[in-house]
Every structure is written in structure tokens, then in C-alpha cells.
Design brief:
The protein is of the alpha/beta class. The chain has one domain: Ribonuclease Z/Hydroxyacylglutathione hydrolase-like (Metallo-beta-lactamase, Chain A), CATH 3.60.15. Helix 1 links the parallel strand 4 and strand 5. The protein is globular, with a radius of gyration of 17 Å. The mean pLDDT is 95.
């Protein structure tokens, strides 16, 4: 797959449904480069990096994790540079690592068929802790491109991190707009809080974890009213 450029500073390596691979984003600055999410495996990371190289883009200096779920984190051991998450995400990754060590990798592979698809060649499941932890929010000036990374309340998980590319008015959402795994039920109160957060930021482009870029209006409509 090829990278899609969605704004001046932001490229996206597209999601894939079969292996439940999310979008992997790349934010380019004059001094630093930042990626969002580490993918489902080292193979996913390698494909992402090959796409960056084809576009003449340098590998990321930092990879920010939107939440703990495996399809966004199990490539962390293979990324270039440092990884960054909030404290809750680190705690969930610690729990996942301990579960696999205690119960065996089959207990993890049984979570979902998409995981078996990703790991069907027998490659090891490696859970890695983030290099850096933040609380609340952080801001980066990548050089001509300012980025805000912040925690938010959301219906998908309670460790959601959003990434605002301020210059481009792009908001990278991860999976935060979805329901909880495995029943995908949405807490409407949390959905409304997230909608208010997005409205206050007023982005031109919103990027979900497993879909193409959408307008703010479509995202908020879905959060407030669902499929109705």
C-alpha cells in the first residue's frame, strides 16, 4: 500500500480490515518527525517504513500511542526512535504482557480472528513498554508544525490519547469514537463528552483508526446519534 497525504504535514499508511490493522500516521516537521501508533506487528511497521522511504521521508523520531489495544501497540518493539504513551496505556500493556506470560500466547490469539491472521506465520507476540510517559497533555514543535497530544474521555477505552496537528487543523482519533471491546457498546455520556471535545478543537479533518479521513461534522453526528 501507498501513503496517502491528507494535509501539508500529515501522511497516512492506510488501514486494512482483514488483519484489523489501523491507520498509521506520520507527521513531518522541519526538525522532527512523529508517528501515531505502532501497528499490529513488526511486519506492519516494516511495511509502513518502506512506504515512508518510497516517499523520501525519514523514519519517525517518536511514535505516539493512542491506546493500548494490540493492533496499535504490538509493533512497538520494531519502531525507530522512542515511544510515548499515557500512564494508563502503560498499565494496560503491563497487564497484557503478564496475561500472556501467565496463560500463554493462545489466550491472546483467542481474542479475535484478526490476531490469528496477523500472527498465523508463527512470529512471536512481543509486548513492549513505552519509553516515555505523559499525563494530561504534551506539545511538540516539530519545526514549522506544532502538535498537541492529550488525554481525553472517550467511549472506546479509558486510556484514549488524541493528536492534534495544529497547523493543519487535523485531529487523529485512534479508535476513541468506537464502543468497547468485545461487545462494541457505546457509553452515550462518554460519546457526548468526546463530541464536545472535538467541537471545541474545530478540526477540518478527523482521522479515525480504522477508516478514511472524515469531516468533524460526520464524526460528531455519529457520536451523538449513531446510525440513527
Amino acid at each position: 500500500m501507498k501513503l496517502n497525504r491528507i494535509s501539508e504535514h500529515v501522511w497516512v499508511y492506510p488501514f486494512e480490515e482483514r488483519r484489523d490493522r489501523p491507520n498509521l500516521s506520520y507527521i513531518h516537521g522541519d526538525k522532527w518527525n512523529l508517528a501515531v501508533d505502532a501497528g499490529h506487528s513488526d511486519e506492519h511497521v516494516k511495511e509502513f517504513y518502506n512506504a515512508l522511504k518510497e516517499e523520501g521521508l525519514q523514519l519517525p523520531d517518536i511514535t505516539v500511542i493512542t491506546h493500548w489495544h494490540w493492533d496499535h501497540t504490538l509493533g512497538m518493539h520494531a519502531v525507530n526512535g522512542l515511544t510515548l504513551s499515557n500512564e494508563a496505556t502503560k498499565k494496560y500493556l503491563t497487564d497484557l504482557k503478564q496475561k500472556i506470560e501467565k496463560e500463554g500466547v493462545e489466550s491472546f490469539l483467542d481474542f479475535d480472528q484478526s490476531i490469528r491472521e496477523e500472527y498465523k506465520d508463527g512470529k512471536p507476540v512481543i509486548v513492549t513498554m513505552p519509553d516515555m510517559i505523559f499525563s494530561g497533555e504534551m506539545r511538540f514543535d516539530l519545526g514549522g508544525c506544532k502538535v498537541r497530544i492529550f488525554q481525553t474521555q472517550a467511549p472506546h477505552t479509558d486510556d484514549s490519547t488524541l493528536i492534534e496537528v495544529i497547523n493543519d487543523k487535523v485531529l487523529i482519533l485512534g479508535d476513541c469514537t468506537g464502543g468497547t471491546f468485545p461487545d462494541w457498546k457505546v457509553d452515550q455520556a462518554l460519546a457526548e463528552k468526546l463530541a464536545a471535545t472535538i467541537e471545541s478543537i474545530d478540526p477540518k479533518i478527523c482521522l479515525p483508526g480504522h477508516w478514511s479521513a472524515l469531516s468533524k461534522e460526520i464524526i460528531i453526528q455519529d457520536l451523538l446519534y449513531g446510525e440513527d
